Amino acid sequence: MSSQPNATRAAQWIQLWVERQAMDPSASTASHALQLLLGRDAPVKVGRADLWELLEDGAGEDAAGRFETWLRGSNLFLNPNRDRGVVLGGVAPVPGPSVATVVTIERGMPDSRAHALTLGHALGGKWRVRRGTVWTLLWAPERTDDVPGLAEKAAWARRRSSGLLVNAESQDAVVLIGTWANPALPNAQPANGKASEGDDGQVA
Fold it and tell me: Which partner for 185 in 27, 47, 132, 162 could form a disulfide, CB atoms 3.0-4.6 Å apart?
């Protein structure tokens, strides 16, 4: 009789949400601009966060928990004096029926080889690391039914020659309403089936 207690486990995505502990100047600026551009259709609150998506393979069943523990002693993904980081665990970062999230990533941005190698040394296994930006848009409860249309309008709003939340010329984006995804960053699977590698540096 054969048994496979150590059968190969599928690779899993771990999502790290990083936002400012104090007011985010970029979110404040975007909120003001949307008020000017959209008037009464603008969201009543705008937030911004970095979204790190880490694909681990072979780091063990408790990889997410060990990563969260390791993160507390590291400044690789965030500045602990400025930022707050949360491992999402598949849960929407900002839940609510009148909330939309606009998830963006620079088109063609390579994966971070430096971050992946550091995680491999610290936690074992093989890692793939991607980084993008998420805008959270909140409308008043009475506008809940309008959120799908309002979110699209806000996501692709433009000022002068460039996009406000999404720059269509250089970024890919997805708008999520009433749901969340893991992975959420666009183009999780490279077109050629092989992750591109780069070195996008550490958090200042």
Answer: 132
- Nearest one of 44, 173, 59 to 70, comparing CA atoms: 59
Q: Which domain holds residue 85?
A: 12-188
pLDDT score for 46: 97
Long-range pairs for 191-198: beta carbons < 8 A, 24 or more residues apart? 195/111, 195/128, 196/108, 196/110, 196/111, 197/110, 197/111, 197/113, 197/116, 198/109, 198/110, 198/111, 198/112, 198/113
- Residue 204 resides in a domain: no
Q: What is the rounded radius of gyration, in angstroms, for the C-alpha atoms of the chain?
A: 18
Category of 16 on φ-ψ map: left (φ > 0), alpha (ψ -120 to 50) or beta:
beta
| pLDDT tens-digit readout, 101-111 | 999 999 999 99
- Could you tell me the two tokens for 9? 């486990």
Q: Is the peptide bond before 43 cis (omega within 30 degrees of 0)?
A: no
As a whole number of angstroms, the distance between CA 202 and CA 78 comes to 8
Q: Specify if 135 maps to a domain.
A: yes
Going by the DSSP 8-state scheme, the letter that residue 41 receives in this structure is G
Please count the structural domains in the chain. Answer: 1
Give the global pTM.
Answer: 0.88
pLDDT tens digits, residue range 28-37?
999 999 999 9
